Each structure stands twice: as C-alpha cells, then as structure tokens.
Amino acid sequence: MKHLFLLALILPTLLIAQTTWDGTVDSTWYISDKEATSYTITTAAQLAGLATVVNRGTNFSGKTITLGANIILNDTNAQGGWRNWNSSTIDLRQWAPIGNSSNMFYGSFDGNGKLIIGLYISRTSDYQGLFGCIRGNISNLGVAGFYVKGGGAVGSVVGSNRGTIVNSYAVGNVSGTNYVGGVVGNNDSGTIANSYAVGSVSGDSRVGGVVGNNTSGTIANSYAVGSVSGTSYVGGVVGSNNGAVSYSYYNSDSATASNLNQLGSPKATTEMQTSAFCDTLQIYANVSNTINADNNFMSWIYNTNGYPSLSST
Question: Which of 38, 85, 165, 216 has the most CB within a 10 Å radius?
Fold first, then answer.
C-alpha cells in the first residue's frame, strides 16, 4: 500500500486521475456472490451499494470489504472548495451513511491505504458519517476534503462506534448537536487507535477533536489539529470521557476554547511538527505491535514542517 499523505499533498493529483460519483448505486458485486467472505470495491457506486445493502439489513458479519481505489464522491473544488462547504451548500451529492441504529455494519472494512474524498452530509438526524453505526472494524482508511453535519452522534468516519477503528484519518469539517467528533461522534465500548483528525469540529455538547463522547471505550495514540467548539463538555481530543484515553494529543494553538477540558495532552504546533513527536507516536505503535501482533499498527512518517502521517510500511 502507498503512504497515506496529507490531503494538501495528494488532492490535486487525485482530482485529475479519478472520476466523481454520478449518484448511481451498484450492489451487484454483493448480490452476484452473497456467500463470499471478501469483496473489493473500486467505485463510488459500489460504495453506495454497500450502504444500500447494509441499511436494508445485511450486516456483513464475518466478511471483509477492501477498498481497491481512491473514491471521489464530490469535486472538492466545487462550490468554493470543500473548506467553504456548509449546511446551505447546493449541487453536491449527499451521502447516505453505511449502517444505522437498526442495521449496523458488523464486518471489516479495510481502506487499504486509499482515500474517500469529497464526502458531503448535511442533515439534522443522528448517526451521520461515512459509516452511521458499526460493531465491526475499520482500518487503513483516509477520509478527506469533507463536510459532515448531523444531529447527535456525528463523525467523519463513524457516527456511533462499537467496534474498532485503527490506522485511519480525517481531514475536513464536522458539525452537529451532541456527541460530535473529528473521527467518531460517539464511541460506545469501541476503540480508536493510531489515527488522527485535521479540521474544525463544532456542536453543542460533548464535542471533541477525535471523539465527541467516549463511554467505556478506548482512545489511544491519536491526535487532532483544528478548532473545537461547543457549550459544554468540549475537548481537544475527547469532549466527554468515561473510558480510557492514553497517548493522545491535540494542538493547543488551534483548539483554544475557554471551556476546553484537560483530557489528552496539549501540544503547540511547533511541537507537533517535530520528528520527536512523530517518534513518540511510533514508539507506541511499535510497543503495541510487539504486545499484540494482531494490532498491525501502521508506521508514522515525519513530514518536514508538517504533521505526522501514516504509512503501511
């Protein structure tokens, strides 16, 4: 797998090389072979097909979905560029999250070092994100150049997580009411590790740079960069916590709200852009892999004058 570069380094190339989603849905890859245990998705229509199949009641337990190509859901230069997208932006294709509170995703989704770009969601309902609700596993995935807005349990990668998310990252903006996070909105007994988020996160209560609310779950070896705002339970890493938070960090130059909690370790931009900080993340990944080889945490890559990113090697 290729390096997972930061959005600013790769987006122009991807926009030239990839085709933007036309709104169609293709679930034939599953319907034609329902007994298979592994599938590879290479188009936006097939990804939308996954959402359709899961939301109709197939949970994919015991099955693995691998992303075989970068996927662009919307042109990130459209409507003033993704950084300017908001709840009123028009002429973008809305994404229907994969899984909901009634039909969760139980399978394994391997991003395979690939990116999903241009995710746009603007709703008032709960459980919004690329995935709505999961009890399965997500790994090796980048979600970049996005705007995600919802009610409660809103995150870029997952709205409500009861599974495991590792080696994943998000670059974009998230907004909601309660349980709002840069990667995951509500982490209920789940795990988020070796991951990061870059962008703004805003809401009312339980708002965090990585996770909005963490109940009996684990957040480890992750970081967030960007503004975080809300009226109560606001944190650079996690807004509200009744679980375990370890070796996780937030940028104290960008997350400056006066009501910010003390969960996670604050670091200035100059600290987070050093090789020493990258080494700190790498040490945890190495130790975790030694203790449990099944973790398979990716290596962290030092980027001069930038933040650490993830690699498959």
Answer: 165
